[in-house]
Amino acid sequence: MVDLTLGTEPGKHPALTDTRKSYIEMVRRKRLYGTILLVLMLALLASGFRVAEARNAGGFLNGLPMLGAFPSEVLSEAWRDRAHLPGMMWHFLPSLIETLNIAAVSTLTGGLGAAVLSVLSTRGLARWPSMAPVFRRAMDAFRALPDVVIALVLIYVLGGGPIPAVIAIAVHTTGALGKLFSEVAENADLKPVEGLTSVGATWGQQIWLGVIPQVAPNWLSYGLMRFEINVRASAILGFVGQGGIGYDLKLAMQWGQGRYDEVVAIFILLFLTIVAIDRLSDHVRTRLTKGA
Amino acid sequence: MVDASLIATVESSFSRRRRVAFAIPVVIILYLIYAVFAFDLPGVIARARMDNAAILLSDFWSYKIQVTRDNRSDRVLSTVEGDARYTVHPDWVTEANGVTTVDLGAGNVVTYDADGARYVVPGYGTIDIRSQRGKLVLTAPQPLPDWISASDTRVGVTTPAGRFNYTRSKVETFRYFPGWEMFFFTPESPFFDKSVGQVVALALWDDRVDPAQSNLAHLGRDFWNNQKWHHGDVIWALFETILMAFLGTFTAAIVALPLGFLAASNMMPIRVLRSAMRRVFDFIRGVDALIWTIVLSRAFGPGPMTGAFAILMTDTGAFGKLFSEALENIDERQVEGIRSTGANALQRARFGVIPQVMPVLLSQVLYHFESNTRSATVIGAIVGGGIGLLLTQAIQTQRDWEDVAYYLVLIVLMVMVMDWASGLIRRRLIKG
């Protein structure tokens, strides 16, 4: 017979003091590890900031007083010309709509791509199960490509405008949403699919009627969250590349003094849009996931 | 007996759902059609520079040796990628009596002579270019195929064997070879142009090239300071990018933890303070990373510290919201148990709350860290730091696409490693 018991012998009650001692010891050890980890982390952060400051163009202490200078300069100029602000916001509305359109189109196309790829790469649902890892790796690669890289390369080929930004964000969205979508699809109940198979439904019908209704609320919720992220991304891409309100912001910033009222108008527009979309998507997502 | 009105309700709800199921795809398609025209997709496709795309793709996997003749001084120079530091003397370029012959292989031969140049393309014929009174005169079999572009000032020929360009000031022929040239060592290095075996032998047991240092150190230094690829600078830039993400994310988490307590309804009894805290988070998140980045780079100048602060600002808002939500969803019984031993508020938080929420919070922080390494690339492109800066610079020069390819490979590898590592740690945390 193999003796599998550890610690005290079977049948004998362990001494209470031993238990307490070993428990306290365990707690102490855990706390010690926690403290060491925390100290290590803080040391890493501190030394990291030192390295970052050394490699920065301006130092931290020199920059600190300047931190308020730029906003106050911008705000005071905008305050002087505050009568222009509503008109300017109206003037930049078309660019804002372009930015929103970029985000919406790329979320839609990326979401559609993600839906197809995620179904194809999910166990139990895949059309060609042996190809599933290939689709999964494809999603990983799409996710790993930062949108700004794709956009800058595409600008070289396609010229400026919103199309490079749309493609760039859509590719990244396909990867990012694909991962989330397939996590949802993995948890889908396969019984409806079996039922549909038994009545001779094709693969497309099985997915469309058996899986999509189950996963739709969660997918939509993730899609909305992605739309929120993509609005920000499309503003940034405009700033780095071309198109939308980000580009107007860059032009106004490059002009500098004298056009700060435009900068403020764009800031306000962006801020309001992001907060509104944030609120809206929060609201809709709670309804979708908690059921209403 | 089934109630007739119930049947009617069910049927009407079914038909409504069916209408919605059809209406949604229709609306999406209509919107996409609108977008096609709003973004002028046909125009963009018509204006697309496919020749640029071809250059880009060929640069990604190959390098070129460029045989250039300056038409004013009549000097012929063969260089790697047009870089005057790296002249080469390939055996497919020969010079005799003032006539240079460039053999591009497979029967493609380019000759430069005193008053022009000729390109013999097999299966097509001879393209002959003379310069007469400042204008280029092209003689070639008509009609001109689309791989020849000709004007009074410039003639360009692109064939599978190479590219040929004639302008008034110079004639250039490009021949492409697969690979990234001088990726490991440049010609200044004693390790240049050697096979792997030779390099290993030289590094490990041959005599010292430079008496002052071992060959292995010499090898490392030559690779690190490669004048063409600048591996050292690139690795530093990559490190800066990860540093920005690391500093920004983890400092934001440390800052947001106490603030999260202040914004959670079951931790903060004072309602005004709580909602004030929440508005602060909303404000920080609403002012986009782009705007934070601009404002901060005005104060601190370009560099990784500015990027780290930009991520710190944005993520403090995000973490504040996430943490306070996590705190609101805790199990109150553990706190109750701690309270029964007479613990004060701080002790209750430390022993009743933190152990419960820590795995969730850490996993969120790690997830953000991973996604911030990607954002740090973008932020680096705006503030000017890290790999993002190198990338935008390389793209803007529109010349060194092999650098762009190199950076791209590194970025994708970095993101994939981060993704994998954070996934591994997060799974561990959740399983306990």
Could you explain how this protein is built, in words?
- The complex is a heterodimer of chains A (292) and B (432).
- In chain A, helix 4 packs parallel to helix 11, helix 9 runs antiparallel to helix 11 (260-290) and helix 10 packs antiparallel against helix 11.
- Chain A has helices at 16-55, 60-63, 69-80, 85-121, 132-144, 147-158, 162-186, 191-198, 203-240, 244-255, 260-290.
- Chain A has 2 domains: 16-67; 74-290, MetI-like (MetI-like fold, Orthogonal Bundle), CATH 1.10.3720.
- Chain A has 11 helices and no strands.
- Chain A has 292 residues and is mostly helical.
- Chain B is α+β, with helices and mostly antiparallel strands and 432 residues long.
- Chain B folds into 3 domains: 4-44; 64-178, no CATH class; 231-431, MetI-like fold.
- Helices cover 58% and strands 18% of the residues of chain B.
- Chain B has 13 helices and 13 strands.
- Chain B has helices at residues 4-38, 41-47, 50-61, 196-204, 215-224, 231-263, 271-286, 289-300, 304-328, 332-340, 345-383, 386-397, 401-431; strands at 62-70, 76-80, 83-87, 93-96, 99-105, 108-113, 116-121, 125-132, 135-139, 148-150, 154-159, 162-167, 170-178.
- In chain B, the strands form 2 sheets. In chain B, strands 3-2-1-13-12-11-10 form a 7-stranded antiparallel β-sheet.
- The longest helix of chain B has 39 residues, at 345-383.
- The mean pLDDT of chain B is 82.
- The chains are: A mainly alpha (292), B alpha+beta (432).
- Chains A and B meet through helix 1, helix 3, helix 4, helix 5 and helix 6 of A and helix 1, helix 2, helix 3, helix 6 and helix 7 of B.
CATH class annotation of the largest domain in chain B: Mainly Alpha
The CATH homologous superfamily of the largest domain in chain B: MetI-like
Order of helices and strands of chain A: HHHHHHHHHHH
Termini separation of chain B: 55 Å
| Average pLDDT metric of chain A | 84
CATH class of the largest domain in chain A: Mainly Alpha
CATH superfamily of the largest domain in chain A: MetI-like
Gyration radius of chain B, rounded: 33 Å
Strand order of the largest sheet of chain B: 3-2-1-13-12-11-10
Shape of chain B: extended
The Rg value of chain A, from CA coordinates, equals 28 Å
Q: Kindly report how far apart the N and C termini of chain A lie.
A: 60 Å
